[in-house]
């Protein structure tokens, strides 16, 4: 039987590939529309649920998954690893995250899925829809950081705590993209799945290799 650390990324990878195949073949998902409308006023779908302060809080949350937000978090983790003497691990983190950024933009251009048009967007968008860059890059960045910190600390409790905190933030970032009307739910699911796969491979392959090269 596959262990959870193998089962989860394997299942996530299969879901991502399935979504890519269906989307590129022109398949549409009825639940995409239904889920998006759950976040909207039934009488006026152009209005998100909740008071103005809540809508602003959601925009703040989505900023955690922006390029600037993730760059600051990644820079903090890289510098912390570097200053603690894990310089190869820090370099590996930089390589992994930069490669993920390139892949994210490349997939959007190749797949070319249109953004949702059933509700008005309440945040600016500049690229195609699938996979959600915020979902993919936040999952990649935060789960990879969690994995690398776990390797550096050599403590499972610290690794699990970092993964838990990463999962909470990644989940909220993805939901915020649906709430703001800028992504289909399947865009977010695809981004989450690819991010889980990317972070798992980066930690197991690149991270462990770099950690062995760094001083104990």
TrEMBL record:
<keyword id="KW-0812">Transmembrane</keyword>
<feature type="domain" description="Phosphatidic acid phosphatase type 2/haloperoxidase">
    <location>
        <begin position="91"/>
        <end position="203"/>
    </location>
</feature>
<protein>
    <submittedName>
        <fullName>Undecaprenyl-diphosphatase</fullName>
    </submittedName>
</protein>
<dbReference type="Pfam" id="PF01569">
    <property type="entry name" value="PAP2"/>
</dbReference>
<feature type="transmembrane region" description="Helical">
    <location>
        <begin position="90"/>
        <end position="111"/>
    </location>
</feature>
<keyword id="KW-1133">Transmembrane helix</keyword>
<dbReference type="InterPro" id="IPR036938">
    <property type="entry name" value="PAP2/HPO_sf"/>
</dbReference>
<dbReference type="InterPro" id="IPR000326">
    <property type="entry name" value="PAP2/HPO"/>
</dbReference>
<feature type="transmembrane region" description="Helical">
    <location>
        <begin position="63"/>
        <end position="83"/>
    </location>
</feature>
<keyword id="KW-0472">Membrane</keyword>
<feature type="transmembrane region" description="Helical">
    <location>
        <begin position="158"/>
        <end position="182"/>
    </location>
</feature>
<feature type="transmembrane region" description="Helical">
    <location>
        <begin position="188"/>
        <end position="207"/>
    </location>
</feature>
<feature type="transmembrane region" description="Helical">
    <location>
        <begin position="131"/>
        <end position="151"/>
    </location>
</feature>
